[in-house]
Design brief:
149 residues, 2 helices
Length: 149
């Protein structure tokens, strides 16, 4: 990269130039630079480059669905509390989506609209099982029973 060549600074370290060119397009559609080491596998490089879009989508969801952009306070402490609660709510929604994916034939209907015609006896889909919580034996004295190091 020769980003500061005007100030006569030597070039920075070598970087990857990633170019996305879908087969149906006549020219490349996206370009990006990456400074991962030269021995990085191509599959990992592409996965990490595409991860940016997941982060962007999560940020948009945090603003739209959870209300990250609704803070109107004046202090950093209040903003940090608000942002923390928004992140917890977003994590909860992500966990719910992972544990309870939508039905294959489920449709979103507008309020007041008649529900879509469905068979009277839809097959039952069991919920995924959750691991049993690990419970430690309780002692009456409250003393430490074991220590791991």
């Amino acid at each position: 990269m020769a980003e500061r060549h005007v100030q006569r600074v030597p070039p920075s370290e070598e970087v990857w130039l990633l170019i996305e060119w879908p087969q149906e397009e006549k020219a490349p559609t996206k370009y990006s630079l990456c400074s991962l080491p030269a021995n990085t596998r191509l599959k990992k490089l592409i996965r990490l480059a595409k991860l940016r879009w997941r982060v962007e989508r999560d940020y948009q969801e945090l603003k739209g669905e959870v209300g990250l952009d609704h803070f109107e306070g004046r202090g950093w402490r209040g903003f940090h509390h608000h942002a923390t609660l928004c992140m917890v709510a977003h994590g909860f929604l992500a966990l719910c989506r992972a544990l309870f994916p939508p039905e294959e034939n489920a449709l979103d209907t507008a309020r007041g609209a008649p529900p879509p015609s469905a068979p009277a006896t839809a097959p039952h889909r069991p919920l995924p099982t959750l691991p049993a919580p690990h419970q430690r034996p309780r002692t009456s004295s409250g003393a430490v029973t074991h220590v791991t190091g």
